[in-house]
Amino acid sequence: MTDPVRIPLSPARFGLTEARGGEHLRAAGWWTERGPTEGSEPVLAALSRSPDPDLALRGVDRLREALGEYWSELAEALREDAVLRGRLLAVLGSSTALSDFLVTNPTRWRSLTDADRVDPATFAPLLVDAAVNGDDAVKSLRLEYRGLLCRIAAEDLAHVVEPELPYVHYDDVAALLSDLADAALRAALEVAQARVPRSEECSLAVIAMGKCGARELNYVSDVDVVFVGEGDLGVATRVASTLMQVAGQACFEVDAALRPEGKAGALVRTLDGHASYYRRWARTWEFQALLKARPVAGDRELGRRYLEVVRPLVWTAAEREDFVPDVRAMRRRVEDHVPADRTDRELKLGRGGLRDVEFAVQLLQLVHGRGDEELRISTTTQALAALGRGGYVGRSDAADFGRAYRFLRTLEHRLQLQRLLRTHLFPADDDEAGLRWLARATGIQAEGGLSEAQVLLAEFRRRANQVRRLHEKLFYRPLLQAVANVPSEALRLTTKQAAARLAALGYAAPDGALKHIEALTRGVSRRARIQGALLPVLLDLLATTPDPDGGLLAYRRVSEALAETPWYLRLLRDEGEVVERLATLLGTSKLVPDLLVRAPEVLRLLADTGELTGRDPITIGNPLRSAVSRHNDPERAVTAARSLRRHELLRVAAADLLGLVPLRTVCVSLSEVWVAVLGASLDAVVRAGGARPARIAVIGMGRLGGRELGYGSDADVMFVCEPEPGVSDAEAARYASSVVERVRRLLSAPSQDPALQVDADLRPEGRQGPLVRTLDSYRAYYAQWSELWEAQALLRARFIAGDADLGRRFIELVDPIRYPACGLDATSVREIRRIKARVEAERLPRGADPSTHTKLGRGGLADVEWTVQLLQLQHAAEVPSLRTPSTVRGLRAAAEAGLLPESDAAELLEAWTLATRARNAVVLVRGKPGDQLPTAGRDLAGVAAVMGHPPGTDPGEFVEHYRRTARRARAVVERVFYGS
């Protein structure tokens, strides 16, 4: 048996595509005709992992030629030393500029063999020594600077080629590059001082700004600086100018355009000159730039004093007029300057780019850092982490923002390393080679059937979209403007000062308010920090409401009740409109906070007006019926119905208080929710009872029948039943009565919610009559015994729940009674007037003011409703449009039919609408039913505010407006109803 023929390995196996790849490998001693030489496999494997294996191999070949007879030492070291192998091949495969440097200075490869991390403490001694002692200071400084830059890049990239080597975090790389720039500035200053005569006659401090100041410098970047001088400023200016020239020739461009007045201003200013400028003339963006100021070279004491002057100014910048809009406008201007065809590829300035992160973080810092010193950090990633810890940014948002920022900065670093040119442009989608190289240089590998280029492109788009989304969420957060409007001193007050400020804002009990604030912000938890950021804004917002003290107490109650709800404070922090709306609700209403602690999910709706105002009010009960129908146990069903009613009641109340829905929507919504609760409860009890000897229908009466229910209204109803075949009327009535009694008992069980009172007093014979009658019993009663008041009550009858066919037939039964064919004779009209007068005299509570009693007072609800009902009894038989249980529709129908002058109808409609809204407002403000308008105090202020009375004016004007409207309506009632 013959041995198989052995096929030699091809250089292409190691990612090499160039024709001369094999030739270069053989020249290096790593390849023969039969394949790799002994011991060279690790080198070839590392070469295959290089971002560009062909580029790396060409660099190796150039080094071989440059080293000549010394090549063998490097070749052997590459075989044996994984650290050197990873660093050198990564650099050669990533950067043509650093390859050129190594070829020009071939012995510099030895600096890559040190297994220890690069030490920034050695930067300044090396650079200063090279600059001061070199024959040509600029050339010596350039050489040493480039060598250290190569060492940082090698350490940064090595793990891509040799995965077992340590990964160097982006933050560490940026800090090393900044430290290197600091050292270069110090060396350039030493050279400048040596070159400029009489330099000892001045002191100069070099203040790093921008990315260098924040210790987040790129591989290739201008270094922004500001100069502060003492002594002879002419000499100091020459020193500063020479420093810029030396550093520019040797290392990087030094840009002093961030100085006061920019390029038109003096290059060097005294400390007093800087202070004067920033206090009087500086624009918003200049304080934003000062956020990153850091002394890096020259007179340390002068640099320290400079920071002492400018830092306090930075942390009051947010109080400047239009500060937040100015910062936002600047970001838009920067973005507008990016060419349209590059905006999606521009890593730095484009949409979803680095500036989106930096502007958002800086704006949040400048606004919230006034009261929280832990936010006073210049480095973007560290500041973002602090914002997350402090609760100013959500934990997940901070983490996502930070990861995306580091990813984009890493891409920027890799792109700049290629040729050591300042670039921020991501490769085009069709640049397959460029994308592949960048992916490999970043450590991205092919996965899931996608190439490296495709994985990189997908990740870049995902991160850019993530950045843009978070930028718009944080940068345009409405709460920022509100926080910025709070004076800084209000964020850091002593107890005495805080009490005085609260009193000035309108808090009646400042000491009590302080206790609430202390309870909410006690400790160092993230929750306390978020509350600390929210409360200054909330206190100002509550101060504009009728009851700031009650609002703050309510806010504390809600916050304590929802303390363990993870989204509560996040919602307030991220949605400025929620804070504003919540302050309005809590500072106006006692009903809302009571409901809110038991239906907190409604709080989320404050961020979405469409969700808050809800769907068609006629269909509002459908979800409740559907949810309750899943429960077989009546008690569980009623509990579910209560919960859903609570949700809807709070939603409607919030939308009403905020002025987002009309009165009809409020009344219909409240009525249909009641109908749904009653119907769902009845269905649940019937389902649980098994056999059904009778059908049951529920008839809505009063304001429930007219779909005009208010927050404090009872549910007026009647119950009708009909026996199934073979069942006697008595058995049917007993069964129906037991079902209805159980429904009433379940609904009236003790609860913290507004009561669910089922009032059946409008049934035949009132409280003395049976709770449930059969349809035939109703027919017999109405045929023989019906009284006029019962016909009047039936005007608002409407089937609402139970058996629909039975309900329809009941309505057909009562139509002839409530719409009498011959109308009313004079005796009946006198009787209705007599009953109305008696109601006014006997039912108005003792001590009540008839001019401001919304229900029974002069020109109130009863006046208007009885007037409409009289017209219906008189004319509905001949005017079909009058056959409606709705007071408003009946009033309009009477006017259209010519039964009532348009002006009279308008007066009555205005009074009814005003009384209904005012009655609802009383319940919202006081948290309990009431028909009497308050005439003084915070309750009156609250009711007036709910009614749309302008804040800051006398709420008593609202009471006078109500009285005038009621008087005009009463005059119509006297004329139309009483025939005066």
TrEMBL record:
- Domain named Glutamate-ammonia ligase adenylyltransferase repeated: residues: 87-307, 580-810
Q: Reply yes or no: does the keyword Nucleotidyltransferase apply.
A: yes
Identify the stretch(es) annotated as Adenylyl transferase.
487-980
- Tell me which cofactor or cofactors this protein depends on: Mg(2+)
Q: Name one GO biological process term.
A: regulation of glutamine family amino acid metabolic process
The source's domain of life comes to: Bacteria
**Boundaries of each PII-uridylyltransferase/Glutamine-synthetase adenylyltransferase domain copy?**
328-475, 835-977
What InterPro entries does the entry give?
A: GlnE (IPR023057), GlnE_rpt_dom (IPR005190), NT_sf (IPR043519), PII_UdlTrfase/GS_AdlTrfase (IPR013546)
Top-level enzyme category: transferase
Q: What is one term from the GO cellular component aspect held by the record?
A: cytosol
Q: What are the protein's UniProt keywords?
A: ATP-binding, Magnesium, Multifunctional enzyme, Nucleotide-binding, Nucleotidyltransferase, Transferase
Catalysed transformations (reactions): [glutamine synthetase]-L-tyrosine + ATP = [glutamine synthetase]-O(4)-(5'-adenylyl)-L-tyrosine + diphosphate; [glutamine synthetase]-O(4)-(5'-adenylyl)-L-tyrosine + phosphate = [glutamine synthetase]-L-tyrosine + ADP
Q: What is its EC number?
A: 2.7.7.89, 2.7.7.42
Which GO molecular function entries does the Swiss-Prot or TrEMBL record give? Answer: [glutamate-ammonia-ligase] adenylyltransferase activity; [glutamine synthetase]-adenylyl-L-tyrosine phosphorylase activity; ATP binding; magnesium ion binding
One family name in Pfam for this protein: GlnD_UR_UTase
Q: Where is this region: Adenylyl removase?
A: 1-479
* Keyword Nucleotidyltransferase appears in the UniProt entry: yes
HAMAP family in the cross-refs: GlnE
Say which family it is in: Belongs to the GlnE family.
Its biological purpose is as follows: Involved in the regulation of glutamine synthetase GlnA, a key enzyme in the process to assimilate ammonia. When cellular nitrogen levels are high, the C-terminal adenylyl transferase (AT) inactivates GlnA by covalent transfer of an adenylyl group from ATP to specific tyrosine residue of GlnA, thus reducing its activity. Conversely, when nitrogen levels are low, the N-terminal adenylyl removase (AR) activates GlnA by removing the adenylyl group by phosphorolysis, increasing its activity.
Name of this protein: Bifunctional glutamine synthetase adenylyltransferase/adenylyl-removing enzyme
